[in-house]
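Quick one - inputs below.
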Amino acid sequence: MSGTTLYDKIWDAHMVEADSDGNSLLYIDRHLVHEVTSPQAFEGLRMAGRSPRAPHKTLAVADHNIPTTNRAGGLDAIDDPESKLQIETLEKNCAEFGIDYLPMDDIRQGIVHVAGPEQGFTLPGLTIVCGDSHTSTHGAFGALAHGIGTSEVEHVLATQTLIQSKAKNFRINVVGQAPAHVTAKDIALAIIGEIGTAGGTGYVLEYAGEAIEALSMEGRMTLCNMSIEAGARAGLVAPDEKTFAFLKDRPRAPKGADWDKAVAYWQTLTSDDDAVFDKEITIDAAALPPLVTWGTSPQDVISIDGHVPDPAAIDDEARRKATERALDYMGLQAGTPMQEVTIDRVFIGSCTNSRIEDLRAAAAIAQTGKVAASVNAMVVPGSGLVKQQAEAEGLDKIFIEAGFDWREPGCSMCLAMNADKLAPGERCASTSNRNFEGRQGRGGRTHLVSPEMAAAAALAGHFVDIRDFKAEA
Amino acid sequence: MEKFDKLTGIAAPLDIINVDTDMIIPKQFLKTIQRSGLGKNLFDEMRYTPDGEEIADFVLNQAAYREAQILVAGDNFGCGSSREHAPWALLDFGIRCIIAPSFADIFYNNCFKNGILPIVLPQAEVDKLMDDAKRGANATISVDLENQTINGPDGGTISFEVDGFRKQCLMEGLDDIGLTLQKAQAINAYEETLDAQPWR
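Output:
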């Protein structure tokens, strides 16, 4: 009998009951909740007279809707009445149902996928869900983590389980050493470019290989975060010493003898050498350039030294039509060198790239010049703790000095639910995860890049090859 | 949840691949704390100008498709965000069935929780139904969940696959929280094993 994969092991360890149809009742260890996808779930509990089964296994924080300016005034200072109501509703629901809540004026508040790991709420080997597709982020710790809909949020609250059918195993080996300036974001975009936005549908991805082992925990979170952009609900990296070092002494991580016992268990969480994967690909990190998206799907990636593709050269009719539609929406001409594409806005933030390492990388570029006069650039830290750390390192001053806006933590212009959004036709270099039509504001044009590429574009006013980037004289 | 057994209705063709949930319901409509009322904003940015005027050539604005109950679409339908507002908006508009070559996982799952049947068919079959749908209001399609068949306007029958448990829940309009709560003993038994791993 062949060995088992990391995904198989976590799955088996959480099986409450299997039925004959191939569906299983899976135990859920951790549940993250935010203001946008939870109100109807709490209302459902209330209407059915149900209460949460294990409220201490849920952690709530407002992130999607929350303003990134003028936070000192608290809830009362939120201009948009609907946003305010949604955050108020979350606070009330948490109080009513006994759920831990990180309030908006708490230093721990932040994007749910940044705050969870910071608190040690995220641990290896756990099942973690949230009404947000980027829950895949937590797979960086070797946890089985995925997004769910609001009905399932209610199901998890009421039962601490989910009815699931098992996904297939897909290993992505990223071999070799990534060159300088080729980041976790570029590796993620390269994978999505290779397998497509539906390439991972029905699978759990396991990222393995030298280039993955070399990534920091922040980098692994960036990579796993974008698993959903490849269609996979979850991505995994086997936990290792970096994982344990990141988690040790976090508020919710186990302590003392429990810690030692946990680490001993976590060290068993790897795919067996003889495990069989349903699908497997290998990508050579050493051959990767920094990447940028040109279209309206995260699979529309091209090297920063490449050109806007020509739909006429695409044989497949559906793909050709999609490319024509994307270029029309993006206002781009086939054949244009990407580095000649000028930008209006820069967004550095989101659950993909708003952690301290991302801000350090962006600040290293920002300190070499000034934001171009034609560009409006903003930096939105992923959490209050990231912001505090960045300020302790003086990164805020570097950004402000260079002409970037330095904001309060939240999802912000990644999805543009709050006031941070693109105007129609505005073009943005963004460190976020989705370049869909209208994602950052109706008619807005999003190009996904790494933090350092975004910072360099802010200074130059157009995309630049970070490998050739020279500080201004 | 409303039961789904048989449906005969107008099918609207949405011949686009990778229709994402931001397209289905843009984020400005996610600020609601209710499930209902999202139908008017379904496909908002494709359906209306920034001034709120209808865009005449968008399929659901055409006279033949205003009452559509079935959507025929391209590959990877529902990709992106986990927002259940997407199936809520479709349902509120009146869509009870979506036919496509493939769906994104979370969206697919969310449909079943809301009485919507997503049907996966090979590309060639979808292409045929897409052609049928483009014929307009005369092109009604019949979906029979019990027998797992689709009948197009020309009388041909197509079979489809669906998970047995999900089929039963849809046909009986079952609340799966209620079903899971009946398994409380198994959940209790599982939770007793957690003592060995106190960090969980």
